[in-house]
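# nightly structure sweep
# worker-07 picked up a monomer target from the shared queue
# config: single-sequence mode, recycle default, output format = structure tokens
# input follows
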Amino acid sequence: MKLTGTNFQSLQSFDLDISGLTVIVGPSNKGKSAVFRALKGLFRNKLPAEYIRTTSDGLELIATLDGKTVIARRPNGKSTKYVINGKEFAKLASTVPPELSAFGMNEVEVGEFTIDPIFSRQNGKQFLIDPEGYSPMELNTILGAFASTEKLEAGKKAANLEITHKNSEAKTLAEEVNASESRKASLEKIAVSASGIATRLQSLEPEVKVLEHKLYWLEQAAQRQSQLWPIQHCVSKLAVPDTAEVERVTKARDMAVQATNTFRIVRLCTKVREGLDFVNSAWDVSRTAYQQLRALNEYKDLLGSRVVFPVESLADSITASNQGFTALKSLTDSIILMAQYQTYMARSLDLAKQLTGVELEASLSSATIRDLQAQMKESEKIACPKCGERFALEE
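# output follows
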């Protein structure tokens, strides 16, 4: 059963679930008796005006039992009204509606006496053992109402069995509560440890990522090393020849080629020099004739027409001289350029003397160079570790 109420005595509102044995405990003057009066007043229609909370407009009690909802309202200055499953009951004159009597919460008539097996008086003893509530005659009448003592014994046994069962349940619940408390304490410790572990894991996450990165590159390096091992094995078996002799012979050959070219240049320059010597001698003759002709022209201008010269023969000589002068003038630039080669020719002659024997040594070393080249090609071949056959590496 569910019981709720508002503005009932000192309680502004309350909400209770009542099932089986329900015990309400607490300090005095906190509303325990008020709950008892509310339950009794609801089922007996005993809700006087003094039960209404001060400064409120009225009280209301609601009970839900066996699928039915019972509502009791007592406004200030008015009587109590009931609403049961939507049906309203008013002006009951301290009686209860028939639907409410069906719950069996009413007083019981035994002979000429009326007894209350449901609600006892406040601070009184339990039913049938309250001397102030029942007189000896009333007790005899109540006990005589039972047809035989078998019903009392059966009820007693059932009650004892129920008590034993409830005590066992209470003990089991107490043990479960204690075990739950222990488990709770253990779980709290585990939760604290788990929180610390989670924090530590979060702090270790960057380190784990770094280690994973390093592990990846280590695996890549190991894979590359396994691929390089056959090549390293072949390289370790290679015999690299001494190339110092090859380098010396190659250098001698280059010097021989350079000496040959220089010798050719020297021969060319020698011929040019011979031509220059001839030109120089012709230039000296031409220059002397030109100077004489110039002197004659000046002397002619000085004497005028009083002296007769062999003009025709002299004119022919002058014309020939002018032609020679014109030809020699065109060679002037060549003579100046050739003069710059004289120093170079001297140096070239000295170099030709120093490298006279190089060409002969180079010609003698050609066979040696070919032999060394053949040896180098043979040394570039590698031997197969299995069959021993030698082969050349291709790019």
